[in-house]
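agent> fetching stored inputs for the 1-O-phosphono-alpha-D-glucopyranose docking request
agent> found them:
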Amino acid sequence: MRKKITKAIFPVAGLGTRFLPATKSIPKEILSLVDRPLIQYAIDEARDAGIKEFIFVTSRGKGALEDYFDGAPQLEQSLRKKNKKGLLEELKRSTMDSGEIVYIRQREALGLGHAVWCARRLIANEPFAVILPDDVIAAEKPCLKQMVEAYENTGGCMVAAMEVPPAMASSYGLLDVKEDMGALLKVNGMVEKPDPQDAPSNLAVIGRYILTPNVLKNVGTLKKGAGGEIQLTDAIAMEIANGEDVYGYRFDGQRYDCGSKSGFLQATIAFALARPELHDELMDFMVQTVGQSRAAQ
Ligand code: G1P
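agent> prediction call returned; pasting tokens
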């Protein structure tokens, strides 16, 4: 029997400079799509995939994240008094049991590979998942769950994959595909943020990973890679060089890059339109606004 994936690392140490000044005093992971913080989408997806231990790699100024997952007895009491059952349920989703969640700090911003490596002692010798909360994926079956199911047959390392326009290569890790089996791909190599002319394909890594503990050992031996940072992509590519299987998984779902303003706004609109109580009013507003904007051009 393959070991179940029960631990997930959430790298949340980034400064969120693209969302300044909003992120001057709140972590970007608390920025909300409609009324739910980005981090809540990541946690919900992890839970649906069977994750039981949530490991946050944080940095200075991320205290609001810890408060967010804490119990809120006064608030709960007041909602109970007012019989606000729906809101109480929502609050429950954001509350973590004691011991379910761990926070460790990345002391220096040395890159994604280094951030994940900071959790090495908590991972010990188990396969684990990594979720980048900036990548929000709307899907009937949550993306990580799709991957965990595929992993039950493959083992090895697996990364979520998606086609991106060639000009966008330098924003992603790109896959060199050895064997295309439909949703599943076997990977020959991976390159972090190549120049578009050097990209091995237009299949990009999206922020969901299932990794073997050996990847963490690899990080320990890495030199600085793209952008002068210790890259997770390079540590996974080392596994391929070691003769291990690495897979890409073309997930079903719509991914929003909530690390960019445009992606964040698109996600906000899409998630709001999916709410029956907001749909009609928002549609009317958008039709009117688009009309006015076109007429003004
Ligand atoms: C990270 C990874 C990159 C991946 C991307 C997906 O980059 O390093 O390989 O393609 O996430 O969102 P970042 O966006 O943190 O620069």
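agent> quick read of the result: The mean pLDDT is 94.
agent> awaiting further instructions
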